[in-house]
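Example record

The entry below shows one chain as it appears in the dataset: sequence first, then structure tokens.
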Amino acid sequence: MKKKILIFGGSGLLGSFLSSHLKNNYKIVTTSNQNKNSHYRVDLTDVKKTFNLLKKISPNIVINCVAYTDVDKCNINLNTAFEKNVVSIFNIVNSLKKMKKKAHLIHISTDQVYNQKSPLKKSNEDQINFANNYGLTKYMGEKQIVNYKTSTILRTNFFGNSLKNIRDSYSDLLTKNLKNKKSFKIPTNVYFNPIHMKILSSLIEKIIKKKIFGTYNIGSKNGISQYKFVVLVAKKLKLKFNKIIKFKSNISIHRKPNGTIMDIKKIEKKLKIKIPKINKSINLLY
């Protein structure tokens, strides 16, 4: 009998990608807060509804892809960010503990819990330094999971073509702007190491199979500036990039970290693999 995976946020970008990737080997059940394409709709900030749903489905694995990811809105409304990024995680964990099922909980976190002063420097899992309410609340959400023994926290930054026309990914938005020859600003001094959702989904399946627990960074092998990333995407898709307006991000104004390149040695060692460089992820775009 196939193991059952419950994906919170299963109709979102990563959730829909994971559903497609895992459906052949697992029984997939998806939820969302609003979208009708999922099996269930649930408000994770409601502890009773969260528990009742988990009890009804009784999953072997839970993957949480739900988050309040709008950085600017998080900075404006900390209460909303706290409810969606912290309270919802508390409700999931405590519901699982109450059920005593020992399901494997995989929580998708963010690279924005990091902020290196030297932006080309990589951060390992202990070098926390958030620059905004998004990073703060995502880290607080992680803290709700620490005492749940069969849990995996994955700090990541992902991209790829959206499988559903619900919400554009970062690369989708870039591609639309490039195709429409629309001017848009991209910082030259913000560095990261995002990974394609196809590679990330494959790594998550390995984590499930090998029952890997703990906190891990998952990103491409090397980091680049956001500007260089856009240029590489444009070249891959054979689009002109002369409409890009370069600028330097100021953390005190924009409240976004400049250095979020993650050190991925820990997960590579644990899975005994080598994660590819950013070019491999970009080549997966179509």
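Notes for this example: The two ends are 35 Å apart (CA to CA). The chain has one domain: 4-162+194-219+261-277.
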